[in-house]
Amino acid sequence: MFVDLFFRFLSTVSFALLVNVPKSEFLWCGLIGMLSWLVVLLVGENLPLYFGIYLAACCVTLFSRILPRIRRMPMTTYLVPGIIPLVPGGAMYLTMYEILSGEQASAVAIGLSSLQTAGLICLGIVTMLSLPAVLFEKIKPTI
What we know:
This protein is an all-alpha fold. It has helices at about 1-20, 25-45, 50-70, 75-80, 90-100, 105-130. The protein is about 75% helix and about 0% strand.
């Protein structure tokens, strides 16, 4: 589990580097990405995986709304890299592979699962973005 979380941290920081996040924010981006996968792992033990992905997307978005107030950075600095561990890239690859292999039934099943995951990520983001900004105004910057 710790190795998995470490690689989620590393992948998030790598993506943050790719999208030109300031170096001072790499740690925070990595922690948010790692937290998102930790939520999936913990919730997935007792509930369906899709519920874990939804809650993880909610957590990423919530922290992506809190940290900009503290660190004085744009919200997308944390949100975009933070959702990377949740994105079903491998499943989309398998969908394309199955299509090219001629396995249409398998491609449809994997593709629908990928779309559900992507939709739940979007739903989690929208849910937390719909919270009023007044809830976050009391947070004071540390810098």
